[in-house]
Amino acid sequence: MAKEITIYDIANQLQISPATVSRALNNHPAINEKTKVLVNAKAEELGYRSNKFASNLRKQSTSTIGVIVPRLNSYIMSTVLAGMEKIANEEGFNLIISQSLESQKKEIANAQTMFNSRVDGLLVSVAFDTDSFEHFQPFLKKKIPLIFFDRILENNNCPSIVIDNTKAGYEATNHLIQQGRSNILHITGNLQRNVYADRLKGYQQALLENEIPFQKEFLWETALNLEAGKEVAQRIKAMPNRPDALFIASDLCAVACISALKEMGIDVPNDISVVGFNNDPVAQVIAPKLTTIHYPAKEMGEIAVKSMINHLKGTMNLDKTNAITLRSELIVRESSRIIEHSA
Amino acid sequence: MAKEITIYDIANQLQISPATVSRALNNHPAINEKTKVLVNAKAEELGYRSNKFASNLRKQSTSTIGVIVPRLNSYIMSTVLAGMEKIANEEGFNLIISQSLESQKKEIANAQTMFNSRVDGLLVSVAFDTDSFEHFQPFLKKKIPLIFFDRILENNNCPSIVIDNTKAGYEATNHLIQQGRSNILHITGNLQRNVYADRLKGYQQALLENEIPFQKEFLWETALNLEAGKEVAQRIKAMPNRPDALFIASDLCAVACISALKEMGIDVPNDISVVGFNNDPVAQVIAPKLTTIHYPAKEMGEIAVKSMINHLKGTMNLDKTNAITLRSELIVRESSRIIEHSA
DNA sequence: CTGAAAGCGCTTACAG
DNA sequence: CTGAAAGCGCTTACAG
């Protein structure tokens, strides 16, 4: 293996000190422009590459941001991560990504790994069953900034980046009511999580405003995945009094449910109208096309990393920031349009 | 900020040398078991965490594997990454992930960042338009192992992890022929990429064996995304002699195309049967359900990282490995069954 | 089984 | 604008 070039090699060849080389390479304002040019040229010539480990060791910082997500392979999360990677890459930061696989236990292990990796900051969307903040305490103690996004933990003074799930839930439900529906079944995930709890709040609020009583039997907590969608359809089929609409907190689940309903001969939207959540690409390719809430996933990722980096650079202080709320949007398509069909 | 605990603190409190502490912490065989127990207990007590930067600097290795993918937010890639993360996490390695966004230019920049981050190994699936190996040469020169997966670059002595795309393409096409189809349109991506070139080979092979002439007009190179699927449907509608089957090298594109065809009143599978590729969850939730090739994405990610780590640890030498081929599988569903419909 | 000592490649407070 | 020197926290060849 060829020997690595260091700042000492550059310093020797240029007959200047390593300190000057280091400063020139880092574009230190006190260094003469000509020296900088010389140093950079020589660095290029020798194929120098900075040793981040020496630098990190010395500076006691890592330019690395940790990210813990429930899973990598969901539409929302992979899109959030794509946004995060984009900004981190542009800003010269590295991302260390790990997945909790919806288990608090794995999330705790991941948090510890992140801690030991000395990430400069941590971005977290929590698992289905996380009910403790304990594993994040070490970060706060060390003043390592911690930002929650999407699925957040409350009451811990950490900033969060979310959409207004209550508003989104309200709009989804209200839209169904405007279409003349009143027996609206709400299919959701673990209600311990803000995203689902808030969507439920919005659902209830819309019912209340329209003087439709909320029925516990019309609230189903599921895994919100493909399989859950099929099961929901089965259960609906068996109901003596079927709902006339569904508000399902995930598109993939909604689409699986619609597909199963159609196989049973139940017409969507005429027998049952459906609204999903996320604006997953899948929503556009089924028939009928799925009405849903657009979730700004890429933007959420970009803003999360951007906020973190600004905070780390000191250009923005997050300590006073409580929450950043992004705009979501109801997208009406055929799955909830009862009167007319699309051409 | 509380002061970080180092091995010197442990050494002082235990009245032994830092060298012994270091060895005990790393479970060095020469160290007395009792000493190890003592050191570990004290480390725990003081809240010690190893400084990876000092360790990496000294050891000249990083326990970090770089991954460059075309994009994070596709079903296949996010699933591959999920598999990679799982193994890396279990083995105590970190992953640095970046996306080329299908551009060679960005891929070059990412490769350089990986190089400067001194990854111990690099895993790459190349962009649509990558036509040079130049940006990977620095890794080979430094003997940093490089493994290609899914979209590979050939003739460079790097091991690759792939499925047998030719066989998969053959099976998909042959299945359509067995169903009585003979005007089979093949929708694919950039043919510079092995995955698409090989699927085409399989397609041609199946035609040849069945004495169906290959027609250039029945091979369409597209972006293989949702929009492309819609456009394909438009173009088909305008054709005087429409194909009776489609083999589309991506499920999402296939599903978008089916959806558009149905809106035009073209029946799938009776007018046109369709086979996709990947076994994206979306394949199961449309009507008709999509016949496709199951792509072992998670396994591919797991094997890629596992192979890399084994190589780095010296338990497996990759230098003689040319390619690891994973099993793919044709999954027949309704979109290509002409005779009978599912119950 | 343990220790003393050197060194990995940087950065920066201090001095000039 | 530049330099000398110390130190970040480890690991390991060498010695005993």
From TrEMBL, chains A, B:
Keywords for this protein: DNA-binding, Transcription, Transcription regulation
Gene3D superfamilies (UniProt xref): 3.40.50.2300, lambda repressor-like DNA-binding domains (1.10.260.40)
Q: Does the keyword DNA-binding apply?
A: yes
Whether DNA-binding counts among this entry's keywords is: yes
Q: Name one GO molecular function term.
A: transcription cis-regulatory region binding
Q: What residue range is the signal peptide? A: none
Q: Where is the HTH lacI-type domain?
A: 5-59
What is the name of this protein?
A: LacI family transcriptional regulator
Instruction: Tell me what organism the protein belongs to.
Output: Arcicella rosea
